[in-house]
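Appendix B, record 7
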Amino acid sequence: MSELVVLGLKLGFLALLWLFILFTGNVIRTDLFGRKVTAAELAQAPSGSPMATQPKLSRRALKQLPKTLTVTHGNQAGLQLPLGEVVLIGRASDCQLLLEDDYVSTRHARISRVGGGYQVEDLGSTNGTFVNNQRIGTPTPFGIGDVLRIGRTLMSVEK
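Structure tokens (predicted):
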């Protein structure tokens, strides 16, 4: 092979190596610090407290709602967390449910009360959020009998 071809291959390999390093650094930065939110996404987000956007539920409807999120499998199996308006799940210190799992993002998922039930929403995590072994991309209803998987951790809701 000509020295010029070998030099071209070396430079091409070096360029690919740098692209890989930059891509990996970007993924790590996004996982640690979150993603940038555009002005359009901020405009679509509800303002004020979650109660302001929620309709008032009757006592009977409130009694039928699940009350507890239980970790059924994983490092924190047996942990129970009361469900409120919003439960943020991830590794960040501001999350209500902190999961010590390498496959969990900083702010991984959100469980929120909507109408007469709860829904789970993936917050742009790297490894995804699964409800009943189906990866979700949009807010998905989540109730009694459903299994939520985040990383290696399995969770369910109970009354």
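Remarks on this record: Helices lie at 3-33, 39-44, 50-53, 59-64. The first strand starts at residue 68 and ends at 73.
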